[in-house]
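# step 3/5: fold
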Amino acid sequence: MVFHNFDELIAKVKGAPEKKIMAVACANDDHTLEAVVNARREGIIEPLLVGDKKIILEILDRLQEKIPEENIFDVPEEDLQKACETAVKLVREGRANFLMKGKVDTKIILKEVVNKEYGLGTGKLMSHFTMFQIPSYHKLILPVDGGMVTYPDLEQKKQIIENTVETLRSMGYECPKVGVLACVEKVNPKMPESVEAAQLQEMNEKGEIRNCIVEGPIQYDCVMRKDLAEFKGLESKIAGDPDVLIAPNIHAGNIMGKMYAISCGGKMAGFIVGAKCPIVMVSRGSTAEEKYLSIVVSAAAAQ
């Protein structure tokens, strides 16, 4: 199974036998609650809202939505750490399936996520999972990691692939196709990105990276266009049909994602993987639609 667009993914999540429970940290935010309410009305999630109750109720009133008051955990607007701690503990205690960041800096909520006493760490690397629907491509595409791991070394790139593949498989993918990007197709010892890409492919061929096909180094044009790969004489199992693109560093991944969204008219969903559950971690400036789609994808992955 692969998803060609977000509508297919939404349909899958709507058809799930039960709604997922999502804890929202610092939920006193218009765009966040608009996305939460849309997902709730479609039967995708049931939210537990943590934040300033007065503000939350005012926003819900404007949205003409009623949420049981026992599902609202009152924490003063200025006490961001307490709101994040409360939301993280709701997941840790099994009262919620996954977590969402509301009106709070990422570093504040991540500090609670990795808290050794009550956090959601697993000992694994946490990485950013981003999924895009762009008009020029026939299915959803995932450029990673553009939001979490800054300059991944070989082992971290391996874990980014494993995190992403594991998440896709939880959503129904059987064998994701992964391209490890560089500006060349041949290994150049002076270009460590190309060397590591080849090593990742070798790990995959030896069974050290499982349940996917990994190829690298490969240029962006060749991995996305089979005809260009063939023109350049590149033999590839994934050209023209990748699911995942591994960026050499956070800058390349972030720029690629921004280009998809800003210049290509793409729609985006994103969250953090590698913790005990998906963590919806989009920018505070993200649109309600982007936050809604991130909730949808996280719900699909929250097994």
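# step 4/5: annotate
The longest strand covers residues 45-51.
# step 5/5: archive (pending)
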